[in-house]
Amino acid sequence: MTKAERTRQLIVEKTAPIFNTKGYAGTSLADMTEATGLTKGSVYGNFANKEEVALAAFDYNWKQAQSAVRDQMAARSTSKEKLLALTGVFENLPACFPKGGCPLLNTAIEADDTHPALRDKAMEAFRGWKANLVSVIKAGIASGEFRKDVGPEETAITLIALIEGAIMISRLTDNAAYNQAVMSAVKKTIIDLA
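RESULT FIELD:
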């Protein structure tokens, strides 16, 4: 890795938690320089602007989140167990999960109308997550774990909506019990696929 690549990586790793916690609008250049220990010139010598840093930070945060989910799913053998692993990740976020919660939720809400490039990143992340779940659900139908009348895309979107909704409600209210209640509903939804 070149010195420039290491510097870019440092900037992304140090600012990613800030962007995920404070959002694009709430993250200032002062936040970025304080977190990295670099000057404004060093930050903008490696990135064209704040949006470019935010896009790289989203990619970094999403990769962390997906890694946590995929590691848990990969450790399971059946489709049902793979889907149930989602609840384990989102009930008790592992240490490797990005600080500030789900980057998809955070970015999708903030960037909806104000930052088209960030919105596109969030949309790409959503599509990837949905495709992964659809694949698991189709495998479960093919193996006979799930009923043949289960709609893979509808089920995947429902699971994502329940999980993201649980995160939003529990963060808004600062009440983890709401997250646990919705994760129980997610488990029931998965169990009812059989």
